[in-house]
Amino acid sequence: MTLRTADCTTLNNGVKMPWLGLGVWKVEDGKIVQETIEQAIQAGYRSIDTAAAYKNETGVGEAVRNSGVARDELFITTKIWNGDQGFEETLNAFEESRQKLGLEYLDLLLIHWPVKGKYKDTWRALEKIYNNGLVRAIGVSNFKAHHLIDLMGEAEIKPMVNQVEYHPLLTQRETHDFCIENHIQLEAWSPLMQGNLDLDILKSIGVKYGKSPAQVVLRWNLQKHVVTIPKSTTPSRIKENSEIFDFNLTKEEVAQIDALNQDKRFGPDPDNFDF
What we know:
Elements: E1 8-10, E2 16-18, E3 22-23, H1 31-42, E4 47-49, H2 57-65, E5 75-80, H3 87-101, E6 108-111, H4 119-131, E7 138-141, H5 145-152, E8 161-165, H6 173-181, E9 185-189, H7 200-209, H8 213-223, E10 227-228, H9 235-242, H10 251-258
Parallel strand pairs: 3-4, 4-5, 5-6, 6-7, 7-8, 8-9, 9-10
Antiparallel strand pairs: 1-2
């Protein structure tokens, strides 16, 4: 079964967001990112996740315009980088991203990391951008439950998405439970553990369904109600990553994968990052 554009979650403001998207972290701007997105769109992807810090927004925008797919069928995300946080700084950074992307509006705008002393002012700017109709949804990235509690204590608008490192070795139970309780959609970056998929249970489940360990993990993401954005520049992998809608894991298999959790991060800890 090919990826269907109808495979979406509904955010707390009613906007539909695809369960599966393409992440373009570390994908070189220009021809490479354009070709990668072209391959993904041909495979059925409709969601593309970039960020100012990825330095490829120009290529992403070019690919979107040349995709042959109507703009309203695509879901484009970008993020406000740490050095651009603050109220006025965020307004300026967003406009710069929008110009690079060459898009009239974005579908989702996120705060990239919870920069202490700044993320509340940054959020006020996101609220203004959202109220002005320049983005369809706003959210955060790398926020733990305590960051969300702090932010929501003063926010006028509740975040619609929280994008975090999430995979079988890092299930972030507290943050995930908080997001479920507060109708904030959890989204996984690095869902494939940077390729560290050589785990017996993933391989054995994969054999049962005729799927790769990567496909098993991405299916597990979906059954945990987590949006997932695997990154690849390889056409065969991009296609393979999309072929996860034609099988279902049992409750026992989901629990077996849950049990792999080690609270292991491949990226920085949001409580201790220096950039």
